[in-house]
Amino acid sequence: MGERAVAARSRKLTAIPFHAQRNEVHMGQGALCLALRAVHRFAEVRIEAALAECGGRVAGPKGAAAKLGIPRQTLDSKIANLNIDKWGFKNLAR
Prior knowledge:
- The protein has helices at 18-24, 29-53, 64-68, 72-81; strands spanning 4-9, 12-17.
- The protein is an alpha+beta fold.
- Strands 1-2 form a two-stranded antiparallel sheet.
- It is elongated and about 40 Å long.
């Protein structure tokens, strides 16, 4: 079973096979790569801001995961994938 995306068309959700999306991309590889970098940078900035505001705390009701509205495990995974040093935000709470 391949990956799929969901497209909204006139209030009806339609599944689109992943390979079809790739063939329909109208921007060049350079522009697509630049767009993906921008998305990752935006996520990185939001996570770092939440960690700074929470003093490096990830879990719990006062943690960055709660602030971002995502599960702790998801945030831990994103932190690892983006190579963010969560320990560098300890004691930085505003």
